[in-house]
Amino acid sequence: MMVAAFVGTTMAAATFLSRPLFIQGKGWTMDNQEQQKKDAIVAALLVFIVSGSVMSVAHGALFHKQAPITDVLGMVGALEPIAGKTALTLFFFGTLSAGLSSVFPCLLIAPLLIEDYRSGKLDTKCRQFRIITGIAPVLALTIPVLGFNPIKGQLLTQVFNVFVLPLVVAGIIVVINSRKLMGANAAGYFLNILLGLAFLFSIVISYNGILAIRTQLG
Fold first, then answer.
1. How many Å separate Cα 115 from the centre of its chain?
2. Is the model's pTM score more than 0.70?
3. In this model, does residue 67 exceed pLDDT 70?
4. What interhelical angle do 72-83 and 87-118 show, nearest 10?
5. Nearest to 72 by CA among 155, 157, 162
6. N or C: more exposed end of the chain, with fewer CB within 10 A?
């Protein structure tokens, strides 16, 4: 389940769908291919470094006593051997920062995709944008309001991300191989091989996610 959750977070389908919109927002065209490649490589490396650092630190801190974390306050207790009396303060500001850094991009994903499909531009003042960004945080509040375990709830929501991933990768493969849409810029053998491997990986992770959810519900 943890593997599926990690993939659902770092290789989320929304990342693939939103990046072209950000590139379009920068005003880049086919003349900026080299710049776009460098930007993508730097972004991927930074994600790898940050994610690896977080997991390494979490492994050393949260499993200091070889005890699994099953509730929120358990995280504070696990940090005490390293942080001492400041464990609660560090945990509070850490979770607050993590939440704020994620909530705004997550709220923008759906409006971005809908407006890109309709007009290709994002109007943050329209009624539709306000309704979608208002409903999303209300849905997020259902986990604590209904009394679910927030740790399990977070893991499950991240696991559900991997089920959309195969569809997104398959859609990308179809689009970039369309000569009608891409013309001379259609994908070559090397890119298709990489995307094929990504598709197989997404299938394996999705299957792993199904097994994880069945285990949790069972």
1. 20
2. no
3. no
4. 130
5. 155
6. C
